[in-house]
Structures are given as structure tokens and as C-alpha cells.
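OP here, attaching both records as promised.
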Amino acid sequence: MPKGVQRMPDKIEGRRPEAYLYSAAAPDEARKKRFEDFLKNRYHKDYELVWVHDEDITSGFRLAVGHETYDWTREGRIQQFKDMLRKKAVEDETPGGTDLITLYKNTLESWTLAALPEEEGTVTMVGDGIVFADGLESVVYGEIVVFESGIRGMVQDLRPDCVGIILFGDEESIMEGSRVRRTKKTAGVPVGEDFLGRVIDALGIPIDVQGPIIPSDYLPIEAAAPEIIERQAVDTPMNTGILCIDSMFPIGRGQRELIIGDRQTGKTAIAIDTILNQKNNDVICIYVAIGQKASSVAQLVASLRKKGAMDYTIVVNASASESAPMQFIAPYSGTALGEYFMRKGRDVLIVYDDLSKHAIAYRALSLLLERSPGREAYPGDVFYLHSRLLERSARLSDEIGGGSLTALPIVETQAGDVSAYIPTNIISITDGQIFLESDLFFAGQRPAVNVGLSVSRVGGAAQTKAMKKATGSIRLDLAQYREMEVFTQFSNDLDESTRKRLVYGQGLMHLLRQNQGQPYSLHEQVILLVAGTAHVMQEVPLVKIDRFRRDLLTYFEHTASDLCERIDTSGLLSDEDKSRIVEIAGSYKKKWLENV
């Protein structure tokens, strides 16, 4: 509505409701009669047509009826045509791509100017990526609205007199008095096979240099989690290739396993190694970077591309330079992409790196929307924020495809405080956590997994039988070693039994050390675990265990390739194979020690 013109109430006692026609020239009697007939047929009421002179409208007109607007100006027609083009580009998509000339021709032939009712409002305040607007009386929470400059936003706050909107673009083109209209659609993201190997932003727009992406579908970023009847038990392993995790804290397809620890303790490294280990496993990986430095994400993408992992990976990047609304919707957009493949029966792994920064972005939005902070200055609904995100991870039943979505959320702690607000929230939502300890990290134990505080609530159900049999009592042995290590720090007088147990525990800790970017295959993990728990490495000096481990695996590849292949293909470990591993490892150790 032009400035200076105020719409009168629809109902005034003794008068008909009024509709307002905005145009540069007054309508003649015949045209006025057509408008009145249209209003009567549309609303089943006798409206009085009031003409309002508007010099800004150079072509066409704008008809306002209550909170609905029929925009037939030149700009409005162009916008309708653009919207139809976008819609047809999605509906008419073919695997071979879309011929733009044919698309334009078909759209022009089938396009007729439709009188689409649009509820419009007026911006009352804008700043810091937040807009307050009035006049949108029927708008719903989470609905997308469009400003006259073309910038889109999402409704995040509903009040009796106005609504709060978060922006997905530059706010410089929006000012007080700008018009905003409803779309009656929730926020969504384009999805499809062509997104594999690409880097996109939170809106699904490519930000790499590989050209545009032709989507196959368009899904809402917010969706209900699969119901219980649609799920099945988690019993298929999602191997990480990391020995200490796959042996003691196995992750299953459809599980949610939290990776938690202080800054710079290797949380992202574990997630990336897990992605690398999915090569040739028919698993699609999605990495969502929230609030990370753009240079760090670029290095990560380059590393994945170098190792051939980008062929099955999608990177969703909402970097630290992006606005809080973009960081807020990024994990939901990534989940919508994952659900597209999951509903097609595929297995998907999604990494949220990290949800601490996601909570901070949501806190910024909430405070700007004038919501009162709660415990530790976070809004009370931050728990619901993450629960409705992580509950969407599941393993679907075979009746609806059997796909799965496995989530690895990452959370950063301060000085190892897992009792803080955000960590406790997400610990209560997930199915276990891998806790990385700073002291272990700085002592050279990498990955720095704390055996005592880490847990997987799925456990052995997500382990292969070979891994379960090879693991044995390693977790108990490590727990006893850690406890004994504390008590023996104050004594040098140790009996032979205690000394051997300490040496054995130290050997296991060194065995679990693993270089970044070098995930183990199943047979390699089984061989190392069987040899380690059988005390084969008891006599190998600690400083030489890394070298012995590499040489031992190489020796098995050359002399027992049939055994390695059988473990990988069957996932089983017979008693004979286990005895053979111990025998081969023991004899090789004697030769190895003689030559070192």
C-alpha cells in the first residue's frame, strides 16, 4: 500500500465492505462493473470499489480486499512469471537436463495471468538480520515470506500486533515501510542426485565453481520424525575404521552418536575418518559445517576430494561469515537432503559440526526476537531445537525401503565440562557419546577417547560377529589399567603381576593409537585386536609398537590373504581363524624382534 494511504475497515455500520483499487488512472464504469462482479463471485459479498490514485503504478493495478492483494502491476506479472518458471523447472526436470528455450516457450504458451490472493504486510523495523512486520494476520510459524526486493525470510515469532521474521539475504534492500507478502509455504531446500560431490549453502545454492545444480525435488527443511511403526531395530554396523570406536563403542546405521570434547581434541578428525571409511560401502555422506572458518571448510573439501570421498559426499556450509539465520537452518537443510536419499532406500551418514555453534546462532536470533534467555543464557526451547533435528535419524523398516540416516553430532565443551547445558541436552537425545579427553590428546593418545565416559547404547547389536569375538575383554582390561595406573603413580615397588598388567595396558593404549586419515578395514581391526588381547605384543617395546603394527598387517596381507578376504566378506571369525592369527602373529613377532 502506498505511503499516506490507510485502508478503512471492511465493515462500517450502514455501509458495504470496501475493496481498494490502486492505479494511476481511474477505472471507467464498465471496468468498475467487472471488478465488482469479480468480487461478488469470489467472496459472495457486495463490495464497494474505492479507487486510490497511485502514481508509482505505471502499468496495471493492485486490488486489495481485506488482507488479500491481487497484484496485476507490471512488476507483479513478472514475478508471477518467474515463480511459474521456477515451478516448471522442478516439475519438468529430466535426467538429461532442461532445455531452457523449450521451458520458456512452454511456459509462455500455458501461462495465464492468475489472480492469486496474497496477504501483505508492512515492515515496521529491520536490523541484524531480523525484521518485524504487521498486517500478516494469517501467517503461520515457519512460513516463508517474500519482500518486494525479492529477499526471502522465515517467520519465527508470532505476536498479537506483529510477526518476527529472520532473513535469508542482505537486509540493505529492506527498509521501514517495505511490503512483505506471504507464500503459504514452509522453508525448503532442493534435493537430488546431482548434489553429490558439491558444496552448497544452507539454501541449497552451490557455492563451489562447478556450475548450477538441477534438482530432482524440493523438500521442506522441517519434517516430522519417522514414527515408531516406520522404524526397525539398529543392527547393521556403520564402521568408522577407527579401532577404539569400532571395538568398544560401535555405531549402527540409524544411530545417533555424539562426539564431544574440548576444542582441538580431534572431534572433526573422527567424523572425517568415518566419511573416508564409507568408500565402496554404498553410504552417502553429508557434512554440515556450522560457524566454521571458510578456509577450514575449503581445506576439508580439498582433502576429501583428493582421497576420492567427495564422489559420495555433500558439504553444506554455513560459515562463520554467514548470518545467524543461515547457520540456524543449515543442519535442517542437510537433514532434508539426507532424508531424500533415506526414503529411496539408501544409507546416509550426516555430520553436524557443530551443534554448539548452532545453539549460539539460535540464541542470537532469539535474543534479537526479544525472547527471554533461560539457563546459561539459552532460550528454554533450545532442547526442542536439537531433539526435533536428531529424532529424524532412523533406520526405516523394509516395507518403506529400509534406508537409514545415521547422525554424528559434534559438541564442544569448556574444560571438559559435560554437565553444561547444551552437552547435557544432546547427551540425553543421542544414543551414546564418544568423549575426547584433552589430557589424553596432549599425552599423544590419538584419538583421545576416554574409555570410561564414552558409551554406545546400541552396543554389540551393531557389531559384526568377527569384531565382537575379536574384542574380547579389551574394554575391561583398559579400565583396570587406568585404575591401576593412578594407584601406582606413588609407588615404585611393584610385584611382577602388577608390572605385567601395566605393561599390557600400556601396549593396548599404544595399539589403539591411529593416524588421522588412515581408517582400518575390518580384517585389519580383527587382526590387531586378536593379537593385542592375546598378549602377542607384550615383549615389543612401546616406542616400536607403531612400526610393528604396520609390519604385521603387511605380513598378513602377503601370507594370509585368504584369511583377510574371508573376514571382510563374511564378517565372521571362527575359532580356527582366531588361533591362526595368534600363531602367525606370534611367530612373526619373534622374527621381527631378531631383526630390529
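Record two, same layout:
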Amino acid sequence: MKIGIISINMYSKFLNFECPLHTFAFQQFLLKKGYKSTVINYQPIYFNGFDMEHPYTYYKNCLKKLKKDNPLKVNKIKDYEQKKNDFKKIYKEREIRYNKFQDFINNNYLKTEKCYNSASLEVESLDFDCYICVTDVIWKNEPHEGFDRGFFLGSSCMENKLKISYSASRGVNFAKTEEEQKEFFKYINDIDCISVREESLKRYIEENSNKKANVVLDPVLLHNEDFWNKYIKKPKEKEYLFLYYVVEKATDTIEEAIKFAENNNLTIIEVTDRPLKYGRVPKNSKVKHKYLYDIGLEEWLGYIKYANYIFTNSFHGCCFSIIFKKNFFVGKRNGDKVTHLLEMFNLQNRYFNNNLEVLSSNPSIDYDNVYKILDEKKSISENFIIDALNKKVIKEKDYSKDKKKQKYKMIYINKKRSSLNDKVNNIESYEIEEKQLNNGENYFLPNMFKSNKYIFSHWIVYILIDKDWFYYTKDRKLINIKEYNKEELYEFSRNDLIPYFNVNGIKEVVAEVI
């Protein structure tokens, strides 16, 4: 069986340490069980050409364009200014961290050479028998973007293949409207075997659909300490408290870490995914402090393993603390994934947000009891994925019905856009309002453009899928305009039918007069 893994892995904008590790852990787990798999090199829908190595340059260019095109978007301009300035301060450190991440991925992943996105997975074929979407907040509703179809295994290239979700999470942003909920359940109804990471998501699915959902461990917890020891770089520092926080400002986590370090004469090693030059431990603090941004995955693991204590608000910070049997404390975090993890292992008393006495009493953790639970959960998780991979019967399904229901704009133009981002009103054009045209039953309109020198010959067509443009070629395929070379374009006459496009995510179709 050829297995393709799709997850947040190489493309986390803030270079989260967790993203490459949980994908790697899952691929290695499958290999241990005798299943070879390939990580699909996949850019999420929210990526938007982000420059992983040099975010400063990316935000600088975005800001320039934003001020030119949308000068009234004051809040967005302010946000981009802040991010540009933050990443400028850590320009060199970011390069170093990025290169360390890439080295780990290149040395340890078996992945596709080509990079894909939600649009290219509609028009290209991948040679996999089974697709697994894996872990973390892949099922969140992205602001201004919506759900990422690829993370739901909803792409055309995955149709009528075995589909499995492993330890999927929905995060804080989720389906709020009735339309979004309908879309969510349309996607998961097509997944053959569903497992999620949090009990709340399991309940939501089972209470609102006829699908069964299993709760399984995050992939990093499928491996023991001996496995992770092979990928650790031991730090030079000794007798330290490891402070690791993500996403939020984590004020409570930082403040309590400072007090604890002062009382126990420990140095704070501070690490975050935020683009900070000096960290958030105040300079006037009495505590000894070292802030690190330019570290890699092996170093991050090493700082967890050899820490005296760990203060974190991170889900995976907790996971690796458990793996290495560390004494750790947890601050406030939005959502329920951290809370769920602590409840799973009866470690609610590590959550100091509502119980600061835990810090003064400094209770030890009964890891014998934790590991009894961990072994039981491992068995459940392993059985789920092995049983899912052994599922043989897949009911053939016709996906064309939903695709034909898509609504998109049909735009006729008499001049090639100098840029595909040109506004239509800059070109002589006429536009058909958004309607269902993807059924192969609608005709191209007659040519309405006038010329003293030329007569109408034919239409050529290009189509916008999500954010990428594709030509319609003579062999009735869609090919990315950026990759277009010598393929001949299909020539549509005035009386031809607008073709049925066997893809999802159609935003607009352009007919250019020749």
C-alpha cells in the first residue's frame, strides 16, 4: 500500500518546533509497523507565498502593496508594520533557525520532491492508495480563508482512495455558522476512518453526524524516550528552568517561571515561537536568564530533556515533558487541547492557572501511574491506525454532483491581463454574475467586442482554482499558467459548451477573445 501523509509539517510560519516533529513521529511509527509512507510536501491555504527564511522581506513587500492598494486598512497595515519590524530585528537568527529546521526535514523525512497546494491537488494525480491527514490544528477555519480542503482529504486526486484522519484537532477557530458546519461535515463524511486528538471534537462529530470518531494520542507520544534520545543535542547549560511558550503572550507562565527560578536559584532558558529579539523575561529581573531564538529541533528537545523544571503553555511542551518524565507546570492557553491532555493523564494539578499553590508545594509527578495510562492509550491508538490501514472495501463514489453545484463568475475579456491580479474593470470586459455553470450545459456567449482590424477567431480559457490560475489545454487538462510551456490551448468557438471542470475550488473562469 502506498500511503501519503498530509499535515502541517514544513510550513509553519513561526517555525514551531512541534510541526516537523509530530509528522516525523507518525511516519517513523508507520515504518516501525511495516508501512512505508511519503509526506506530501504541502503548503496550507493560508501560506500565501510566505517567505519562511526571510519573513521580514515578505512583510515588507506585503506592506508596500497594501499601502498602495488598500490604504484604508489601517489595522492590517499596523499589524504588518509590527511583524516586519519584529522579524527585521531577528533577521540573522531567523535564517539560522530556518536552516536548522530544513536540515532536520531533509535528513529525516521521506517526502515528495514537488510542493503542492489545495489548487494543484485538484489537477494533478498522486500515486497513493491511501491518504492520512495527521494531527494538530488541521481542521480549523482560517480567517479570510476558510477550511483547508487538503487537510480534510477533500482534493480531487484523493477521490475513491482510502482516507484516514489521525489525531486531528480543530483548534480555537472552528465552524461558527451553519454554512461552515455543513461544509465541515461534508468533508468528514468522506473520511473512512476518523480519529481526533480531543474528546470535545469526538463528541461534536458523533452528536452531529452518524460518523464514529476515536480519540488517539498525538504521534509524538507513540514513541518512548529511547527513540527521541537519538535526535537530541545535549545543552551546555546546567541547573536551569526551561521556559517555552507559544501563540499567546503567556504572561502568567512567564511571571510564575521568574518567581520559581528566583526561589530555586535556577537560570531561565527562554524559548518561544514568537519573533522576539530578547524574549519577554524583563531585563530588570533578578533571575539569571538566557534567551534563545536560533536553535533547531534537536536543541529544543535537548533543553526539555535536561531541564530541572519546565514552564510552558504548549501542548507539545507538555507531551515531551511527559516523554522525558520531567517536573513541569502549565500556564493558561486558549482552547482545550492542553486541558484535555492533562486530564487524560490525571495531571490537572500541573495547571497552575487556578491553583498557584502547586508552585509553592512543588509536588512530584507519579510517572508510574502516568505511564500505565500512556501504555493503554498507545495500544488504543496503534490498534486504530493498523485496523484503519487494513480496511479494504472502499465504496466507489461519484463526486461530480457536488462539483457541478459550484458557483463561479464567468468573465469575458478582449485583452490578456498583464497580471492575473489585474482588476477586470481595467480591461474591456463583461462579466456573468456568480452562477452554476459547471455542468457542461451552458454555452459561451457570442463575441461582443468590436474591432476594425480583426474578426473573432475563438476563446481561450483560464480558470482560477483557490488562488492559482490554470490554462485549459487541447488534451482537456488544466495546467498551471506558471508551468505552461508548449502545450496547445483549447480553442472554443462561439457556439461551444462551457466545459465541465472536474475540480473543486473554482473561483472564476476567464474567456479571452482571440
